[in-house]
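User: Please predict the structure of the protein below. I'd like the answer in structure-token form so I can feed it into my own downstream comparison script.

Assistant: Understood. Taking the following sequence of 138 residues as input:
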Amino acid sequence: MPLKTEPLEEPTLNLASMLDIVMLLLMFFMIGTQFKNQEREYKIQLPTVSDAKALSGQPDELVVNVSRDGVITLNTRQISIAELEQELAKAIQNFPAQSVLIRGDGASPYQNVMEVMSAAKKVGVRNVSLAHQPRAQK
């Protein structure tokens, strides 16, 4: 079996094609920025709207926590019933179908949860739900 007597060819790095692509990208971005400047040169008065609302989907439900001692928490912030009404009113103004989830401590007096439900009803929240845990099967 004859052995190769030729020396192995050393690999080389051909930078010509990479430089061509870099130059093409550079020209592309330079020309693109010129189009952006020309677009802004038009003397156009853009229309305005008074009551624009977000085009996104329905936001996540607001979670109101009622602790055992009656402290009300909305978005990890302790608030009073009056502040809760203001926050819910803002949410309903932005998204009329805003839903609210009330999480009341099981050992808390029922009156605390009813005050939160009353505040939600007062500002017009129509989708109120109460959180619960299912009992373990025996």
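That's the full token string. Residues 63 and 101 are 5 Å apart (CA to CA).
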